[in-house]
Every structure is written in structure tokens, then in C-alpha cells.
Amino acid sequence: MDLVIRPADPAEYTALGEITAQAYLQDGLLDFGASDAYLGELRDVARRAAHAEILVAVRGGVLLGGVTFVPAGGPLADIAGPGEAEIRMLAVARAGRGQGAGEALVRTCVDRARAVEGCRSLVLSTQPTMRAAHRIYERLGFRRTPDRDWNPLPGVPDLALLTYELTL
Predict the structure, then answer these.
(1) What is the predicted pLDDT for the residue at 114?
(2) Among 114, 164, 104, 162, which residue's Cα sits nearest to residue 137?
């Protein structure tokens, strides 16, 4: 069965939110584990959909994962500036990994960014331990931008995020 990347249906928001939350939890990406406040954001796909585009990867009717594509700033942009789009919250369920879903979601974001008038680059933040994601980004031509690395919780020194950029 073919992998399909498409906009999320509102009926999928709860399932996608749980896939995203579980991916972050199971991969140890939340400093405060199950009590991490960021879990609420990861689960709140409806809120993200009100400000950005939510894309999902589906194979044979099974939801494998999703990503938030922020086309031009707004409340969901972490690092995007003028002329930049941003990728947020890329997550694939453990059962769906190794099937190309993550790369297909990123490729679709690249295509979406190229279609945004005036968009010159696509940016994203990632944790140092997300090595599989880094390999996808680098394979697709993203380059590290250490000068943009940042910390969403300055009081937690170990929470530095790495940044990548793809010039379109």
C-alpha cells in the first residue's frame, strides 16, 4: 500500500496528538517526562491547526504520524523570520517508523514552503538526540545553523535546541 501525505482531518486530531505525545515520551525527549507541560501542546492538534497546516502520513488507512507546517510566522513560529516557513512537531509512531513517513512529511513541507510566495527558506528546531531526524534533514539538503540554536526554557540549561535551514 502506498504512503499518502495529506492535510489532517479534524477527526484525526486526537489520534495524531497522542502519536506525537507518545513519540516524544517514548524517545525521552521531554525533560519532565509525563508531567512535562509541553505534552499539552503536543496533544493539542486543533490549536495548531487554527494557526498552521497539519499534515499526516497514512498507509492503508493507518495514521503513521504527522507534522506542523508553519507557512509564515504567526503564533506557532519558534524561529522563523520574514521570508521563512517552519517545520514543527514532526512525529512518527514507533510502529510506523522505518517506512519513509518522516522523510515524506518533511519533503511535503519543503514543497509547501516552495509554494509560499516570498518564502526563501524552511527552518526547524530539533533536539540533539533526534539523530534519525537529523539524517533526514541533512539528506534533503538542510544545513545546521548553530548561530540560531536556542533554549525554550532558559532555566533548564540542558534543553538546547539545534537549528537547521534549507534555502529554497
Answers:
(1) 97
(2) 164
